[in-house]
Amino acid sequence: MLLQVGVFHKHPRNNTSRQSYTHAFWLVFLLCVSALSLSSQDAWAKQAWLHNNLALAKQHAAGQRPLLVQVSAGWCTPCNQLHHEVLDTPAGHALLKHAVGVRFDFETPAGQRATKRFTILNLPTTVLIDVKGQEIGRIEGYPGRKEYLQRLHELLRGHGDFEKLQQLQKKRALKDPEKLQWARALLVRSRHQEAYKVLQPMLFQPSRLGQDATRMWGRWLLRVQKRTQAAEAHFRKAAETYKSTPAYAGFLYWQANSLHQQGRTQEATQLFSQWKSRASKKFRPTMLLADFLVHHRLDPKKTQETIRQSFQLLPAKSKRYQRYAPWLLYLSAQVEQRQGHPQAAQKLIQRAIKMSPRTAIYQNFARQLSASPAQKQP
Question: Which domain holds residue 151?
Fold first, then answer.
């Protein structure tokens, strides 16, 4: 066709008509290319997740399709499981027939903006936003493939909880668990003072509901508001309140995170040492200290020593060993990778996978090691 166009220009007769034909041809050609480009972009938007770009997601949605916002972190075990079992499968891509999907890495600047914009309290969190920019509903955590997909399809059909909770609240018919849901719904809609009034009677109460309310408000202070001093005081009181319960470990860890974000890292690590000194079972504080050191990329020598101590506190071949040893191997593999020892890291993570083959975070880390440029062992 291009050859024929060139021949037309060589003929002196009927030159005007032939030029018109040529111009018409190119006009039609460009229009077709443009249409195909728009069509391919539309198909791509429907079939692929966007990453860390809310503006582009809104552009693709064009005010005509809902947004499916998903926030995860690479260090988050349930996040990895969600991606492995749902989002990175045909079922996960099928969700994008109904909405424009955008995934955020919590640790990136874009992920931090999304955390504030959508009030992300737990990881992973999936939020469905309608065409008017209003939240339809969300899924916090990962309850398993079947439950996750079932809940998400309900949201895609417009079955959110806010209107139902609002009606119950007006009738003063909210039960205690529903009050917690109502407080969360208010928080994510930036109605913070109303949310606090709902939560306040539940905070620091000696019940599972009290723990959940206390955890919710503390995470809002730290993750969303970045009010590190208020968060540290909140989690310090929570740790003291729930010292004799299994929830103590989590609250102390969050208190340590709050201190670290203020630059008070030594005080943060001392919390675990103080806990260990008075604990009857030394493994839990030692393992959580190792986790804390790896997560915040602190002293690698101290980290490896803490991991070694954790292993020594685990009875060999016990159920406890089978449960926690893979995680300690994974922590150690991360330190080896950061020290420039990919082969040692690969050996450690393969041991973890052998012990826990269905845990996605270990498999994903092994793939990252395989994909990274080869490094020489010292």
Answer: 48-156
- Domain count for the chain, please give it: 4
Query: Quick one: pLDDT at residue 284?
Result: 96
Residue 266: which CATH number? 1.25.40.10
State the pLDDT confidence band at 23, using cuts at 50, 70 and 90.
Answer: low
In a domain, 376, yes or no: no
Beta carbons of 182 and 174 less than 8 angstroms apart: yes
Q: Are 85 and 58 in contact (CB under 8 A)?
A: no
CA 3 – CA 21 distance, rounded (Å): 14
User: Are 169 and 230 in the same domain?
Assistant: no
Radius of gyration in angstroms for the set of CA atoms belonging to the chain, rounded to a whole number = 27
Give pLDDT tens digits for 347-365.
999 999 999 999 999 999 9
Do both 150 and 295 map to the same domain?
A: no
Please indicate, yes or no, whether residues 229 and 285 belong to a single structural domain of this protein: yes
378 within domain boundaries: no
Rounded CA separation 193/304 (Å)? 44
Q: Alpha-carbon distance 164 to 317, whole Å?
A: 50
Q: Is 141 exposed, middle or buried (0-12, 13-18, 19+ CB in 10 A)?
A: middle
Q: Are strands 125-129 and 67-72 parallel, antiparallel or unpaired?
A: antiparallel
Output the pTM of the full model. Answer: 0.84
